[in-house]
Amino acid sequence: MKTVATGLAYFVRRQAVQNLRLLLLYCTFLVTMVVGYAFLFRYLMLHLEGREFSLIASIYWTITVMTTLGFGDITFHSDPGFVFASLVTISGVVFLLIFLPFILISMFVAPWLQQSLQYRAKTELPADTRGHVLVFGLDVITRAFLRKLEGRNIPFVVITADHDEAFRLESEGLNVICGTATDAAFLEKTRVKASRHVVANLNDPACVNLCLTARALGDRPITVIADDPAHVDLLRLAGATYAIPLSQILGRYLATRATTCGAMSHVLDSFGSLVIAEVPVYGTPLAGRTLGQARLRERTAISVIGLLERGAFTVPRPESVLSQHTLLLLAGTREQLFAVEQIVSVREVEDMIFILGHGRIGCAAATNLDQMKVPYKLIDRRENPACGRHAQVTGDATNLGLLRGSGIDRASGLIITTNDDNVNIFLTLASRHVNAHVRIVSRSNGEENVDELYAAGADFVVSNASVGANILANVLDKKESIFLTEGVGVFRRTLPPRLSGWTIAESGIEGLTGCTVVALERPGVPEPLTTPPPDTVLKAGTVLVLIGSPEQEKRFNQAFQ
Ligand code: ADP
Ligand code: ZN
To answer: Which of 33-47, 117-131, 257-271, 441-455 has the lowest mean pLDDT?
Structure first.
């Protein structure tokens, strides 16, 4: 099936390349004709009428005559000249005004129209399809999720009810089938019973209907993204295995990163007894010291496995300086983490947070700040009808007078959470200009604006698409990987058998893939070994905990799996 889709995309591309070549050839012919006529014009003018024109003027005359504009500022005054001018006009009409549009339409517009008219979307998968992930509702989040599936070679099928969308997606090379998600007969044809997982990002009522219909057909796991956290229970009741309240998760994420309370609350995940946590240096006594001076390992036995500075990951070294923008990535036991919390819980900054944008995510951030007893101000250009709990200043946040008047220059943290990335970038830049020390955390709606937000001065950026896709991938993997920040994650892999008996350095895991081995879970040993030295010998059955970018994770999969 994928081959048919890929074949179609390939055919469309090949045909387009061929047509483009023909068009280029035709344009070359036109240019040659114009230049030829221009030389002829010069010659005739000189010999028939004794007037001399430059090459530029001759080309100008040819073009105005061929396009039938004929300004009349340069004209012949003799009969042979009139005959020549008429010939140029006629060839202009034929080659430029008739043939050229004809070629453009027949080679580019008509084939595309014909293909889309003839296109019949698939409405069913072959009966023996199995192990596929069914994806309902394609948006930035599910698209980012599909890229993860591709990276892991997991087959997937996108379902859409819109025939035109199916054509567009198939032309992109995606495997698509067209039908109504809530139609049981159609769902049967998606081979849902034999699927690996069903993932849906539709509106909540459509998800409820889909869950009920799919549940009646079998017990495959179903994960849905809930628009409204209040609908999570309903979705579970309808049959969803996981209902993810994404805006609530993002709101909490942003709130814990904007405040000084974040350090204690951000355990990213745990693999057995190994806890991976993130501690912002912001507002703690560690700020301004080097990692060596902080002596975290000596004081708590915890391992620092990485440093994140405005989204960039670095391997920790004793001389690495911890700034207000640094996030420490730690690996250890819960007891060790607790010991770290005692050190960082001494707060040196008074929290005063501004939340710009009171949509679902902004509202969830405010609820989290309420729970943490952190004072904040909410600004939105309109009231949030779904929220009766939070007081807000109503006005456009891009109005700098309003921001200054609300005291943004005294804010300790700023959560930017409008649904418009341009506005988010603008607000980041404007707030950084007014308040050099404020901790800015921003949401990025598309993954492509993350770099711009960092460049504008954000301390922490999180994109809906990455977080959503990562949560979906984790559900699929049963938590085999965790999301640290844009572009960096922790993932687990069982040691490939051919590497057993090698040391970490010899194995090439770090050298070949760029990943860092942050911990080893050894068979029969209850405590994980964190930050193992390069000469550690890898034994069969060991589980590697690795840190790396999605690209590095893919390289690992290609090299060792
Ligand atoms: P979500 O629910 O995903 O958070 P919404 O679209 O509901 O997304 O929320 C975005 C919020 O940002 C809306 O309440 C909108 O009014 C607000 N917003 C967008 N632009 C501005 C702006 N320039 N100033 C103030 N608020 C804004
Ligand atoms: Zn609210």
So the answer is: 257-271
User: What's the mean per-residue pLDDT of the chain?
Assistant: 86
- pLDDT tens per residue, range 144-197: 999 888 877 899 999 999 988 998 898 888 999 999 988 999 999 999 999 999
Query: What is the distance between the alpha carbons of residues 325 and 321, in angstroms, rounded to a whole number?
Result: 11
User: What type of residue sits at position 407?
Assistant: G
CA–CA separation, 340 vs 423, rounded Å? 37
Q: In sequence order, what E strands does 315-444 have?
A: 326-332, 353-356, 376-380, 393-394, 413-416, 439-444
Phi/psi at 273 (5° precision): -85, 0
332 lines ligand 1 (CB under 6 A): no
Give residue 147's identity as a one-letter amino acid code: R
Ligand 1, atom 5, lies closest to the CA of 359
SS3 content of the chain, % helix, strand, coil (to 5): 50, 20, 30
Cβ 490 vs Cβ 306: under 8 Å: no
Which atom of ligand 1 approaches the CA of 396 most closely? 24
Of all protein residues, the one whose alpha carbon is nearest to atom 26 of ligand 1 is: 380
- Which atom, in ligand 1's list, is nearest to the CA of 418? 12
pLDDT at position 3: 43
Find out whether the beta carbon of 224 lies less than 6 Å from any atom of ligand 1: no
d(CA 521, CA 503): 15
382 lines ligand 1 (CB under 6 A): yes
Helix (H, G, I), strand (E, B) or coil at 552: helix
pLDDT score recorded for residue 5: 47
Q: Please name the residue whose Cα sits nearest to atom 19 of ligand 1.
A: 418
Structure letter (DSSP) for residue 96:
I
Question: What is the layout of strands, in order, in the sheet containing 267-271?
Answer: 267-271, 274-280, 326-332, 303-309, 312-314
Contacts of 406 (CB under 8 A, 6+ apart): 354, 377, 379, 393
